[in-house]
Write a structure and sequence with these properties.
The protein has one helix and twelve strands. It is mainly β. A seven-stranded mixed barrel has the order 2-3-9-5-4-10-11.
């Protein structure tokens, strides 16, 4: 209950604050951080907070034709963990997508490809994890409809222990982030990765 009430208040605040940016820019704009409690089930300790700082989603104005690759988009920004323990994010959900995955982008024989991060993404205790085009990101797949510039995109992130945190990111027009999706590609191994 505490998490749902907090998430609703924070989502409403993020919605009100996100109206300050323009919706037709070619690069993302700064927005206030969105905070969400990660309820770890320990009622004695204060919950850790996941903040999405300068969060944004790539706008998708029109879904692809039937038979084409499924419609997808990414969520970017900086995830910050205010707690004193690492948080491993392993998945999520969103009202705008049928599937939410945590992705990494790696070099392959075919060039830069994105794929689901094996084991999820870790936001270190008291630290941050940058989500960016060409790097780690939250992938929203099988979009349920267009995601127009200016729309707020809500994502519920799930940690490995089942705790959930809701973040909200405004959709922005962005010409980049055109990596190839390679779900079946084997893990990339390299001495410099």
């Amino acid at each position: 209950m505490r998490l749902s009430r907090s998430a609703a208040i924070l989502a409403a605040a993020a919605f009100a604050l996100s109206g300050c940016g323009t919706s037709d820019s070619t690069s993302p704009q700064s927005v206030p951080p969105t905070t969400a409690a990660v309820d770890d089930g320990d009622s004695q300790a204060a919950p850790a907070l996941i903040l999405l700082v300068d969060g944004w989603a790539k706008a998708v104005e029109q879904l692809p034709d039937a038979g084409a690759m499924p419609a997808m988009t990414g969520v970017f920004g900086t995830l910050t963990n205010t707690g004193d323990a690492d948080i491993r994010l392993v998945g999520g959900s969103s009202p705008v997508a049928g599937t939410v995955e945590l992705h990494e982008t790696v070099m392959s024989d075919a060039g830069m490809v994105m794929r689901e991060a094996d084991g999820g993404l870790v936001v270190p205790a008291g630290g941050s994890l940058v989500l960016e085009p060409g790097g780690h990101h939250i992938m929203l797949m099988d979009l349920t409809g267009p995601v127009p510039a200016g729309a707020d995109v809500e994502v519920v992130l799930q940690s490995e222990d089942g705790a959930e945190a809701t973040v909200v990111a405004p959709a922005r027009t962005f010409a980049g982030a055109e990596e190839t999706y390679a779900p079946a590609e084997p893990a990339h191994t390299s001495s410099d990765s």
